[in-house]
What does this fold into?
Amino acid sequence: LVVDGGPEDRLEVRTILSEHGFDVEEARDGEEALRRIGQAGAPPVVVLDRDLPDMDARQVLARLRSEAAA
It folds into this structure.
């Protein structure tokens, strides 16, 4: 899962990972990433931009950890 507010940045990371055989999903902000993970489960890898439009990476990680512990 690539989480980045910039469409160009998401495309660049998607292209690199896809060229190496990875199936890539995208989210444009922290809420979308959390929603996707809540619906489909945690992916093996999350590439998370530090500064997202709606929250920073630490906030996303804290919510993921608290939801995983619940």
